[in-house]
């Protein structure tokens, strides 16, 4: 099996929202057995079938955020704040390899499940902490969200908004959460590898801010070296070369180019335009001339692309060596020929229907992961408790006492 890298690894997740659950979802994709613990009251906002503001007000049959973030897991409802619930958690951790949580320090301490509590009891345990802005510093006790700590605080939102007339919000839900979750999953895998060599568990910390500063690292490093607020983001007409800009087609679509403005590339594009004479135009005859006359070349490219629809340009650009891509919608990205060929988006058999989920990005041995549906809340409560040795009478008593559901 290609995805048995973490076979036999047991993960206990005590978390809601998106960051920590996405890390556990990746571990499940890699073969780990993940049990998600949900509280008996309130539930997870990600399980709301109404979805995200702005989407059509209709019932699509599943909670898409819950499914994407919790596929392949088992789920129990357990009140860890109660002594009996904490005792059950500790019994679950006796043979667990990994514990993942997003709970804040105050809540972890109150429940008696902070790092020292668990690593003292289970020294081989890997403790994964998902935080907003890190485990140290004056704001360590505070929570954070991806659009604040990942997008706004990192400098990305500022840079993205420079070429706009207004603030550019985060492009979609859980962008920072999903990115940070992948980093946390990788860190946990590294900690498991270390444990195989040393026998010791430990703590893996990833914050939304840490993953954002890594993702935006070149911009942050440049700002310090050049003593500027950020690397400038230029408007369309001010780009340094025509071959690093986006152009609108006759039918209102856009094509984005990203390539070195070499003589060869410029000549190829001129030929695609049906205007090979542009390559010998003194304004564009060499790299230095094209740099000096970048605005003029962008204006010409604008006019050229406005002459034909996207479908025509796809044909005309097949022979050029410069990388280019259509600026696609989310739906188009999900149906992209490369997305489909590589199994980046996969159909999952749900309880009542089939639907698409996005696979975690790492692939092993030339195959895509096998993605399974997410559990319903509390679907495996009884089964997990029976595995711990509790009989039906005890389970019923715990349910009556509000410890489980």
TrEMBL record:
<dbReference type="GO" id="GO:0016740">
    <property type="term" value="F:transferase activity"/>
</dbReference>
<dbReference type="InterPro" id="IPR044855">
    <property type="entry name" value="CoA-Trfase_III_dom3_sf"/>
</dbReference>
<dbReference type="InterPro" id="IPR050509">
    <property type="entry name" value="CoA-transferase_III"/>
</dbReference>
<dbReference type="InterPro" id="IPR023606">
    <property type="entry name" value="CoA-Trfase_III_dom_1_sf"/>
</dbReference>
<dbReference type="Pfam" id="PF02515">
    <property type="entry name" value="CoA_transf_3"/>
</dbReference>
<dbReference type="InterPro" id="IPR003673">
    <property type="entry name" value="CoA-Trfase_fam_III"/>
</dbReference>
<protein>
    <submittedName>
        <fullName>CoA transferase</fullName>
    </submittedName>
</protein>
<keyword id="KW-0808">Transferase</keyword>
